[in-house]
Amino acid sequence: MTITDITPETDAKVRAVPQRIVKAWAENDAEAFGDVFTEDGSLILPNNIFLTSRKDIREFMAKGFAGPYKGTRVTGEPIDVKYLARNIAVVITKGGVLAPGETEVAPERAIRAMWVLKRRDRQWLIECYQNTPIGA
117 is in which domain, residue-wise? Predict the structure, then answer.
């Protein structure tokens, strides 16, 4: 399969997935955040965080939004997209966490992330997400 097999509409939907996470985070909405993942989706973060279900991801984010993530926002823009099949895409983003009042990501909170997406029930969902710090 080549990239020409992917329609512009499909590509736009794939590239929009990170913005669904950005929006859920901005609203501190753990339910909406979890809804972007498949039921058995995985979330891998620094500090030995490894979650393997939508339920666990929702619970983790609810605690985060009530604690260390309160008042923060995230940003992430696709810098590369690869299609492995008609229903599977890998998106690489660059972004990070914005502290309250910030408009640009501080180097120590900059990340590069990999999103493995799968189309299920006519929508693109995260099967696995992992990020790596790239800052100072």
Answer: 3-133
